Amino acid sequence: MGDEGRRGDEEDRGPGAAHQVFGLMEGLLEKLKVLNYEEEVLAKHNMKNLSRHYFVSSPFLPSNPGEQFYMFTIISAWLINTAGRPFTEPQEHDEPNATVSAILAELRALGVKVDFPPSKLKSGSGEHVCFVLDRLAEEALRRRGFSFRRPNYPTETTEEESVMEDNAELKLSKVEEEMIEEPDDEENVMDLEALKSRTTHTESEPSSKPDDILESTVDAAEWNLELERVLPQLKVTVRSDNKDWRIHVDQMHQHRDGIKASLLEAKSYLDKLQEDIGKTLEKVGSREKYINNQLGHLIQEYRSAQAKLSEAKERHQQASGGVMDRTRVLAEISEELEKVKQEMEEKGSSMTDGAPVVKIRQSLTKLRQEIVQMDVRIGVVEHTLLQAKLKEKSNMTRDMHATNLPEFNTLSD
């Protein structure tokens, strides 16, 4: 389902969307080289240089998700620090989800809009990884004050001049033909002024016609040697105009002839290649039909098995939810059971311990002693109280006798 969704997104974006990540990765590598990542990152961690398409996710490129993810986190941390924000360099044993979330949080803090989940970065390669590194590299370059300028392309006149210089040396016969065709063209015969002056000088001199037939006295071999010596000097350099349309027409004819010759040579190869490709396509089509016919029932079984697998996954998810709830309840019950066990152990240890009984006995013995002492004190107090009562009673009796005796005396008188 994920592959079909990704394929649908690529079709919506266009046929060239799959190749944009290659250009993005090449631009990212140039930015990293400008930031001197070889010495500041690779040399520090003893790693080799990145290839042109290191972070590109493609079936045609070798991949190592663990190494690519570690390299992605290290470069991201370095770029964030270079951009002026403190960020701790991640380690290999760190949690990947936490590391990716921290990197995206720093990217959002730099003002970059992120509209994809953090799980897209856990593979260590792909379009989103290149996007994150490219934006961080731009922020780092902006922090260092570096910016790319537009290239200055050379003008086309240099190429025309080089072509003209190559074709400037012409043979004398060709120059004469051009002079016959264009007698009024003074620019192409400017270098022949010396020749003209020489001819005019000979015409001005008086003619001396010989009376007899001239006979050569020079040896033919010496004449040939002299001819070979002066032959290179007979070439005339013609100063050609860069804007002359005739030169462009000649070049066009030369290129047309070259294209025709190349086309005739390549057409046979292309026809043969087309024929081979057609035969191969026919073979592939027939083989595909044969395989579809042979594996039709297996495909149906695979689809039914896939449907059963999806149903089993749904049931597993539902059961997993119930298991999670029951696991939580079991954990609570286990915790309460541990508490009860601990209380029972404390009570059992206190029940089997004889120290409290000894203390109770000692307390009872002490209490009996105190009771005996209290009884003695109570007896002493009762005795004292009895003596006091007796003494008081004797005093009262004596007082009564003392009062009754004078009365008796008065009565007797």
Key features?
two-stranded antiparallel sheet; 13 helices; 72% helix; mainly alpha; disordered N terminus; elongated; 413 residues; 2 strands
Polypeptide structure, described:
This protein is mainly α. The chain is built from 13 helices and 2 strands, in the order H-H-H-H-H-H-H-E-H-H-H-E-H-H-H. A two-stranded antiparallel sheet has the order 1-2. The longest helix has 58 residues, at 355-412. The chain is elongated and about 240 Å long. It starts with a helix and ends with a helix. Mean pLDDT is 77; it is low at 1-12, 158-166, 168-173 and 180-192.
Main sheet: strand order: 1-2
Report the total helices.
Answer: 13
Radius of gyration from CA coordinates: 59 Å
Query: Based on DSSP secondary structure assignment, what is the total number of beta strands?
Result: 2
By secondary-structure content and strand pairing, the structural class works out as mainly alpha
> Biggest sheet: strands, sense, closure?
2 strands, antiparallel
Give the helix proportion (percent range).
over 70%
Compressed to H and E, one letter per element, the order equals HHHHHHHEHHHEHHH
Q: Note poorly predicted spans.
A: 1-12, 158-166, 168-173, 180-192
Mean pLDDT score? 77
